[in-house]
């Protein structure tokens, strides 16, 4: 991540790099290309794709448009991923201690087949629906950045029953209140 911040500064401050002041719909922004960050992200993406048996999702990386005007905004959005995922991690981490209560353990065992299955169910639901792009105006914009894929949808509204039924058990499972 440090390298990406460094490359962002290089892209923003290099002599001869032009920018255009544009109303992006979210105010007046400086739109500028980011060739160094773009190259680094493409190398990272393609390296990751080669290391996997199957890639699901978009491989588009965009900079210098109304959705991601400068690389600094791109880097800042991805820096937020840890904060965005924290409620999911807390929910998963709390399942074992939550199941110390015999009544809760019984409910989890009966409804989900145990704590491990519940964890897998929550994660499968999140990864299936949390990145569907439904928070953007269209698919092309959804693929541009993490907020179009992840933060725009109120995930707790798309949770399938019986997952909705377990939300009250999780004190920190408030995905729409990040």
Automatic annotation (TrEMBL):
Record protein name field: Non-canonical E2 ubiquitin-conjugating enzyme C-terminal domain-containing protein
Domain of life: Eukaryota
InterPro entries linked to this entry: E2_Ub-conjug_enz, E2_Ub-conjug_enz_C
Source organism: Peronospora effusa
Taxonomic lineage of the native organism: Eukaryota, Sar, Stramenopiles, Oomycota, Peronosporomycetes
Residues in Non-canonical E2 ubiquitin-conjugating enzyme C-terminal domain copies: 1-152
